[in-house]
Write a structure and sequence with these properties.
Blueprint lengths: L19 E5 L2 E4 H15 L4 E5 L4 H13 L2 E5 L5 H11 L3 E4 L13 E4 L36 E6 L9 E5 H15 L6 E4 L6 H14 L2 E4 L5 H9 L4 E4 L1 H10 L4 H9 L2 E4 L6 H11 L3 E7 L3 E5 L13 E2 L4 E5 L15 E6 L6 E2 L3 H7 L6 E9 L5 E6 L4 E4 L2 E4 H9 L4 E11 L3 E10 L8 H11 L8 E4 L13 H5 L2
Parallel strand pairs: 1-10, 3-4, 3-5, 5-6, 9-10, 9-11, 11-12, 12-13, 24-25
Antiparallel strand pairs: 1-2, 7-8, 8-18, 13-14, 14-15, 16-17, 17-19, 19-20, 21-22, 23-24
Helix pairs in contact: 1-2, 4-5, 6-8, 7-9
Length: 503
């Protein structure tokens, strides 16, 4: 397989200062500078079997991952907020020989037994010119030290998934999956080298790292990372020439709340070519507020660590709130009943588990052949654990996770997501989550967890039940309502429902 980043082979741009590839605050690297930095670092780690990357939201993280991929070495992104036990498990399981980090990073004790290689990008600032032709770049591989021969199936990343019933599992993502996913998104989103992406996502997840960093670099475009998300940063970058924004629902919720008081933000969003939300469902009312203020529609896509991206609303398609679009080129998607039989009717009502097949899939869980086997059907479909319905034209609408969001009540299969959206349409509800709990009569009863807009005057359980029944159906109304100050969320803004159910 050729380089994942063709633009890096052209070390010096035709432009006087080179095209900027990466920008984090005031620090940036042109493609020429990035090529030199990654080549030098790649030479130092080429013999490593696997490298850990201390994945802070910094320029060094992007350089480290690209260098590893160009050298043909699998990278293991580490969440700097990981606890001692989780970090110890990841290191023991993945067995990296080297850890890559920014020179100023202080690493936890668990990492100090590994060889440390500092990622050197000192002096890289926004106004730094590209190297001149008289400068000596890092030496290219010689016949005595040839560049590695890479294949589609060679591992590129090992990304650890959140463990719900045990420690995190390392999903081995091959180079093939990265290339095909990013090229499919380029087709769906009309993504080119002229695009400038802005985001503030963590770099130890697929969303922020693969889509948010590797995506622009594969296209030959630019990425501006905010370091820390803020509506001010979004407005500044979009008003300063950025064309695309990636975010998660919590970010877009903050944007929707800020729009009435921040006219520059509304103007900036109105200039964007594409606004993309992912990692969890964006509530319909946030869609509506953003569109009303900016004229722009946020499009959603659907993916997970093991599959990268599966579906998306296309840039030239209908941005239908509440859906995640249609399968990407090369991706096969089906819904199945509990017994595994395929659902053939696209009626917008029949709920089934999403299963996918295609070149976007991971190769397996590291050191876990049992878990890998359990994740796939006998005919090669990956069991996502996500529940959805399909509309007549193929659009997919996710209703929740099989383990936490599928509620079987009174003989009906009910997705928590649609009830949550209905609750969020109530003016007295600021945040909402829905779960099921055992019920002797119904099998399960629907439970709503609500953060009221006015804590001093929360909407009553009866009022919310009537509100949902009027919008959906009587059997979908919540039977129990809990009022909370806030919903528990993870780093990506996803609601941690297991924490709710533990009380």
């Amino acid at each position: 397989m050729s380089s994942l980043f063709p633009a890096l082979s052209d070390e010096l741009s035709d432009e006087p200062n080179g095209r900027v590839a990466l920008r984090f605050g005031a620090r940036s690297l042109t493609y020429g500078q990035l090529a030199s930095a990654t080549r030098a670092l790649g030479e130092r780690v080429r013999a490593a079997g696997r490298v850990a990357v201390w994945a802070t939201p910094a320029l060094e993280t992007a350089v480290a991952v690209v260098a590893a991929l160009e050298a043909g070495v699998a990278a293991v992104p580490l969440n700097p907020k990981s606890g001692e036990q989780e970090l110890g498990h990841i290191l023991s399981d993945s067995a990296p020989t080297v850890v890559l980090a920014a020179p100023e990073d202080e690493l936890p004790l668990a990492l100090r037994g590994l060889e440390r290689v500092d990622v050197e990008v000192s002096g890289a600032v926004a106004e730094l010119p590209a190297p001149s032709v008289t400068e000596s770049p890092s030496p290219a591989p010689t016949d005595e030290d040839p560049a590695p021969t890479l294949t589609d199936e060679d591992p590129a990343l090992v990304v650890y998934t959140s463990g719900t019933t045990g420690p995190p599992k390392g999903a081995v993502i091959p180079r093939r999956a990265i290339a095909t996913t990013l090229d499919a998104l380029a087709d769906a989103w009309r993504w080119t080298g002229d695009d400038v992406l802005v985001h503030g996502l963590p770099l130890f997840h697929v969303h922020g790292l693969v889509l948010g960093i590797l995506g622009p670099l594969r296209r030959g475009g630019s990425v501006r990372h905010l370091g820390r998300f803020s509506t001010e940063g979004v407005a500044r970058e979009l008003n300063g020439g950025a064309t695309m924004l990636f975010g998660v629902p919590t970010m877009y919720h903050r944007i929707a709340q800020s729009l009435p008081e921040e006219p520059e933000l509304a103007k900036a969003l109105g200039r964007a070519r594409l606004l993309v939300s992912g990692s969890a469902a964006l509530p319909v009312h946030d869609h509506q507020r953003i569109t009303a203020a900016t004229g722009q529609r946020v499009i959603e896509r659907y993916g997970m660590t093991e599959t990268l991206m599966n579906t998306s609303v296309r840039a030239d398609g209908e941005p239908r709130p509440g859906t995640v679009g249609v399968p990407l080129p090369g991706v096969e998607l089906r819904l199945v009943e509990e017994d595994g039989s395929p659902i053939t009717s696209y009626d917008s009502e029949t709920v089934g588990e999403i299963q996918v097949r295609g070149p976007n899939l991971f190769t397996g869980y590291l050191n876990r052949p049992d878990a890998t086997e359990a994740a796939f059907t006998a005919d090669g479909w990956f069991r996502t654990g996500d529940m959805a319905v399909r509309e007549a034209d193929g659009y997919v609408r996710i209703v929740g996770r099989k383990a936490t969001d599928l509620i079987k009540s009174g003989g009906y299969k009910i997705g928590a997501g649609e009830i949550e959206n209905a609750l969020l349409e109530h003016p007295g509800v600021r945040e909402a989550a829905v779960t099921g709990e055992p019920d002797a009569d119904l099998g399960e009863r629907i439970v709503a967890w609500v953060v009221p807009a006015d804590p001093q005057s929360p909407p009553s359980a009866e009022e919310l039940a009537d509100h949902v029944a009027g919008r959906l159906a009587p059997h979908k109304r919540p039977r129990v309502v809990h009022h909370l100050d806030a919903l528990p969320r993870n780093d990506m803004g996803k609601i941690m429902k297991r924490a709710l159910n533990r009380g």
